[in-house]
Amino acid sequence: MMDKVPMTAGGYAALTDELKHRQSVDRPRIIEHIAEARSHGDLSENAEYHAAKEEQSHNEGRIAELEDKLARADIIDISKLSGDTIKFGATVTLIDEDTEKKAVWQIVGEVEADAKKGRISITSPLARALIGKKKGTTVEVMAPGGAKAYEITKVEWR
Prior knowledge:
Layout: E1 5-8, H1 9-38, H2 47-71, E2 73-76, E3 91-96, E4 102-108, E5 119-121, H3 125-130, E6 138-143, E7 146-156
Parallel strand pairs: 1-2, 4-5
Antiparallel strand pairs: 3-4, 3-7, 6-7
């Protein structure tokens, strides 16, 4: 069974760009490295050759992974979503009830989750706790350091 991979249009574009780069830039560069290392002679003790082959293996594996995710992509157009109930694509503003710190998270697919960019996976404990909730609600999330409580102060679609 091929499960669909939910993602935003931006996430799909980013994966497509990475795939194109790996196929048109990285692949030819690695092939060149292999050919150059091969010209140095004995392959059994040629560290450059083995490093280039390993890099090729890694790159080809990532290309296959990207092709699979793109083939199974279920692109969700966030611009068509609205409402005050949190679901995939929502950008949620939370206040940590212990520290009063504000955090803004967009709920996205696993392949585009990036905490540094404020994107959390739909499968993360925080996102799972938020799904179906509305502004003004308090959610409790089991974090590695224990339970954390957050108040939902805003739900946006952007």
